[in-house]
Amino acid sequence: MKTRLFASLMLLAAALFLMGCPEQTTIGRINADPARYRGKEVLIIGNVTNSYGALGQGAYELSDETGKLWVMTQRGVPSKGARVGAVGKYIHGVTWAGRNLGSGLEETDRKVR
Coil, helix or strand for 26? Predict the structure, then answer.
């Protein structure tokens, strides 16, 4: 009986933990189907190719093997060349002639390697 209760509690805890994890995706997938990711929290991993910041706020461009995406942040920008895992909500701008313009990620968390 105790083993069954313990196993049930562990299963419930694992399910709750996994529900809080954002979906990891590539920048290419986001750019190919922006409506699917609009307003959703996602995780993207890539290298910083550009970064601009002042007074603890700014933006940096994250690049993976599938594309590039700008990430807006309120806690300083990582340096160029850094490997970053950015978590945030995807904001879709405008699609013009098949290109996404003004789209980006509003950062909520970051891991730098």
Answer: coil
